[in-house]
């Protein structure tokens, strides 16, 4: 015989956590059309799941042609950056319940880069700017017999900019980059900052000279879009300002 407690427990388990959510995805297939178009998908999903889970459900159960990048699915690789409801976010870190699932969830590729297919953009110009700032330790002299030591205070000087995962959320949120793809962009400047202020590095002057170019750090208009978009919480605008200050004061 069922007790009142057992009946209540059964009633709770009968309530499904799933809701119907509309994903409005900007589709583009160069083999079919020169124009992008919006396509709606209605899926049943737990609102505590992520936008990436919704995209997986669409691709695996509804339309296998939907194309997007993703890898670790834990906010580390940065490969699934996209515009979700008009803002740059990582799909793997964005919960359905946090973006008003009662309205269509719009998903589109990040801006300022050539769209290859659906949510996939050409990242090569972004990575070229990253390579151009020499994002690696440069030293001279003989190879050390042990690791190069650094004080906690010296490490703290550039700690914030070591968090970059190269997702391009900051760069593709920059109005200057939208209108001029030659601009290095916030991510490249952040990664230059990481080595410019590293006490073990000896190529700060070279990087500053690279960023002193017409397409370099002076193109920044301090709109704070990059800082708002960063999924790692990096103070991008502050880092750019510190590079500008270093350029102004380096001769004195």
TrEMBL record:
<dbReference type="GO" id="GO:0051539">
    <property type="term" value="F:4 iron, 4 sulfur cluster binding"/>
</dbReference>
<dbReference type="Pfam" id="PF13183">
    <property type="entry name" value="Fer4_8"/>
</dbReference>
<dbReference type="InterPro" id="IPR004489">
    <property type="entry name" value="Succ_DH/fum_Rdtase_Fe-S"/>
</dbReference>
<keyword id="KW-0816">Tricarboxylic acid cycle</keyword>
<feature type="domain" description="4Fe-4S ferredoxin-type">
    <location>
        <begin position="154"/>
        <end position="176"/>
    </location>
</feature>
<dbReference type="InterPro" id="IPR012675">
    <property type="entry name" value="Beta-grasp_dom_sf"/>
</dbReference>
<keyword id="KW-0560">Oxidoreductase</keyword>
<comment type="similarity">
    <text>Belongs to the succinate dehydrogenase/fumarate reductase iron-sulfur protein family.</text>
</comment>
<protein>
    <recommendedName>
        <fullName>Fumarate reductase iron-sulfur subunit</fullName>
        <ecNumber>1.3.5.1</ecNumber>
    </recommendedName>
</protein>
<dbReference type="GO" id="GO:0009055">
    <property type="term" value="F:electron transfer activity"/>
</dbReference>
<dbReference type="GO" id="GO:0006099">
    <property type="term" value="P:tricarboxylic acid cycle"/>
</dbReference>
<dbReference type="GO" id="GO:0046872">
    <property type="term" value="F:metal ion binding"/>
</dbReference>
<dbReference type="InterPro" id="IPR050573">
    <property type="entry name" value="SDH/FRD_Iron-Sulfur"/>
</dbReference>
<feature type="domain" description="2Fe-2S ferredoxin-type">
    <location>
        <begin position="19"/>
        <end position="113"/>
    </location>
</feature>
<dbReference type="Pfam" id="PF13085">
    <property type="entry name" value="Fer2_3"/>
</dbReference>
<dbReference type="InterPro" id="IPR017900">
    <property type="entry name" value="4Fe4S_Fe_S_CS"/>
</dbReference>
<dbReference type="InterPro" id="IPR017896">
    <property type="entry name" value="4Fe4S_Fe-S-bd"/>
</dbReference>
<dbReference type="InterPro" id="IPR001041">
    <property type="entry name" value="2Fe-2S_ferredoxin-type"/>
</dbReference>
<keyword id="KW-0479">Metal-binding</keyword>
<keyword id="KW-0004">4Fe-4S</keyword>
<keyword id="KW-0003">3Fe-4S</keyword>
<dbReference type="GO" id="GO:0051537">
    <property type="term" value="F:2 iron, 2 sulfur cluster binding"/>
</dbReference>
<keyword id="KW-0408">Iron</keyword>
<comment type="pathway">
    <text>Carbohydrate metabolism; tricarboxylic acid cycle.</text>
</comment>
<keyword id="KW-0001">2Fe-2S</keyword>
<dbReference type="InterPro" id="IPR025192">
    <property type="entry name" value="Succ_DH/fum_Rdtase_N"/>
</dbReference>
<dbReference type="GO" id="GO:0051538">
    <property type="term" value="F:3 iron, 4 sulfur cluster binding"/>
</dbReference>
<dbReference type="GO" id="GO:0008177">
    <property type="term" value="F:succinate dehydrogenase (quinone) activity"/>
</dbReference>
<dbReference type="InterPro" id="IPR036010">
    <property type="entry name" value="2Fe-2S_ferredoxin-like_sf"/>
</dbReference>
<dbReference type="InterPro" id="IPR009051">
    <property type="entry name" value="Helical_ferredxn"/>
</dbReference>
<dbReference type="GO" id="GO:0022904">
    <property type="term" value="P:respiratory electron transport chain"/>
</dbReference>
<keyword id="KW-0411">Iron-sulfur</keyword>
């Amino acid at each position: 015989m069922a007790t009142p407690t057992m009946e209540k427990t059964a009633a709770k388990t009968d309530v499904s956590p799933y809701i119907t959510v509309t994903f409005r995805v900007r589709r583009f297939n160069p083999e079919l059309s020169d124009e992008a178009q919006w396509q709606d998908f209605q899926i049943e999903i737990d609102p505590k799941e992520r936008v990436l889970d919704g995209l997986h459900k669409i691709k695996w159960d509804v339309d296998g042609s939907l194309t997007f990048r993703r890898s670790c699915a834990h906010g580390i690789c940065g490969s699934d950056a996209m515009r979700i409801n008009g803002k740059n976010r990582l799909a793997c870190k964005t919960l359905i319940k946090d973006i008003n699932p009662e309205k269509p969830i719009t998903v589109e590729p990040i801006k300022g880069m050539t769209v290859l297919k659906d949510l996939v953009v050409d990242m090569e110009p972004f990575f070229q700017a990253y390579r151009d700032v020499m994002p690696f330790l440069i030293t001279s002299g003989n190879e050390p017999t042990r690791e190069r030591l650094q004080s906690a205070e010296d490490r703290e000087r550039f700690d914030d900019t070591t968090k970059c995962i190269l997702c391009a959320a900051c760069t593709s949120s920059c109005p200057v980059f939208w209108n001029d793809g030659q601009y290095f962009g916030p991510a490249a400047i952040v990664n230059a900052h990481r080595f410019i202020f590293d006490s073990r590095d000896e190529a700060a002057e070279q990087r500053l000279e690279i960023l002193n170019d017409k397409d370099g750090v002076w193109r920044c208009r301090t709109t704070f879009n990059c800082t708002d978009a960063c999924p790692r919480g990096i103070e991008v605008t502050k880092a750019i300002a510190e590079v500008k200050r270093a350029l102004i004061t380096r001769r004195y």
